[in-house]
Amino acid sequence: MKKIALVTSLCIAMAALASAQMSMSKDKSQRPSPAANAECKFSDGKMIKTDYSSPRAKGRKIFGSASDKALVPYGEVWRTGANDATTFVTDTNVNIGGKSIPAGTYTLFSVPDANKWALIISKKTGEWGIPYKYESDELGRFDMQVSKTSSPVENFTISYDPGGSMCTLHLEWENTRASIDISEK
Asked: Domain range spanning residue 173?
């Protein structure tokens, strides 16, 4: 009888712990990579908005080869942030890399490399972010310009520079900046 009571108590304690962990994972403010967002308004008031989680470098090697033990290995699809996959919402049709993207909600991924990056826009939404298995849902992959930042960037940052009917998307972390122009169609 004592064994049954002990097992029952243990099961109740494990269920309570699992419930607490699930609640904590749902509370985005408790995550080590806090939620962030960026937006850009076109001259007519239409806009692009991006929601993402902003991980910290914390002294780690961020971009590089797998042999460098980089957090984000070159040539592999990255969720472009942390936690949930990064969202890209536009309330107007846009043009990226010569391809039309209709107004809607999408997910951003990227493929970093030393001298070039690819931005991936996927129709699949609501996923955690990894592992990436959504190639059939891609609207496209777009070449990004890569440059060095003027100083190290501790927090992964997504930002936009507005310019009339164009917004330039920037992804910055460690010492890397990847950029691409997005124009209103």
From this structure: 31-184
